[in-house]
Every structure is written in C-alpha cells, then in structure tokens.
Amino acid sequence: MDILTRPAEEFENDQTLETMWAIKAYEHAEIYFNILCSVDPKYLKLTPIDNIIYKEFRDEFPHLRINIINENELKSEKSKAKWRPFCEKFKKCVEDYSFGTLLRSDASKDYTEDNTMLVTRIQFYAIELARNREGVNDNLRKYFPKIE
C-alpha cells in the first residue's frame, strides 16, 4: 500500500524530526543575525532573485509595517489569504520556499522566545529584504556589535 494514501491519523509526530527541524531553524536564525550585526544589511544578498522578491512584496504589501510585525495580524485569515498566492509565486524558484523559518517580530531586537515567530521561508526573505533595503536593520550593528 502506498504510504501517501494512508490516513494521517496513523502517523505520529516524530520527536527526533521535530527536534532536528528546531535545531536547523535556530541555527539559520543565529547565523543570519550574526551576519546582520557584522555587515551593512543593504548589501546582503539572501537569494539569487532578491530584486524580484522585494518588488513583488512591496507591490503586494505596500503598507505593511516591517519594523514590528504583529503575529496575530500576519497569521489572520485575511492575511493568510493574501500571503498564500504571494508565496506560491516562488514555489519553483526559491528553494525550500515553504520551509518553517524564524522571524524576529521586532526588527530592533535579537531572536528571543518573545521576539520570534514561525513563518515560511519566502515570507522571511520578503520581510527581511524589505528591512535590509529600507534601513530597518541598520542599527543592529550599533546595538549588537560583532563578537570577535
């Protein structure tokens, strides 16, 4: 019997897999934040198609406030309905576009339990590209100096 045809109720969450995902997501967040604190964010290249992602994001979400993201607003049914088609545009051109990725709610702060939410990889790219290009991440190097 093909495993994909079996009912979802037959499967349990694999704690090892969840732990591995959490470790990978945390490592990505830690590396990204260290880079933000080390170089001018305006010059960061996150994907080969940064310009397209940024343009599409600002075309679709021109007034989205990116310095502080309200998780409840971002994940509301209305917002999800708008984000879903945006994300799907990048299905074939952004690797792991739907992979769970950690995003800082308040761009002026580090990743902490209270300042972190789970978003798709393409949402992370879109919001962080905007934060980098629009100067929102500029002060991080001042407040979180690179540790040698």
Any descriptors?
148 residues; mainly alpha; two-stranded antiparallel sheet; 6 helices; 7% strand; globular
Outline:
This protein is mostly helical and 148 residues long. The protein has six helices and two strands.
What would you say this structure looks like, in words?
This protein is mostly helical and about 150 residues long. The chain has helices at about 15-35, 50-60, 70-75, 75-90, 120-135, 140-145, and strands at about 100-105, 115-120. The protein has a two-stranded antiparallel sheet. Helix 2 (about 50-60) packs across helix 5 (about 120-135). The model has no long low-confidence stretch (mean pLDDT about 90).
Class by SSE composition:
mainly alpha
Major sheet attributes: 2 strands, antiparallel
The sequence of SSEs as H and E is HHHHEEHH
What overall geometry do the principal axes of the alpha carbons give? Answer: globular
Question: How many DSSP-defined strands?
Answer: 2
Q: Could you report the average pLDDT, rounded to the nearest whole number?
A: 89
Oligomer: single chain
Proportion of helical residues = 40-55%
Based on CA atoms alone, the radius of gyration comes out at 17 Å
Low-pLDDT stretches are none
Tell me the strand order in the biggest sheet.
1-2
Distance between the termini: 55 Å
β-strand amount = 5-15%
Annotation field: number of helices: 6
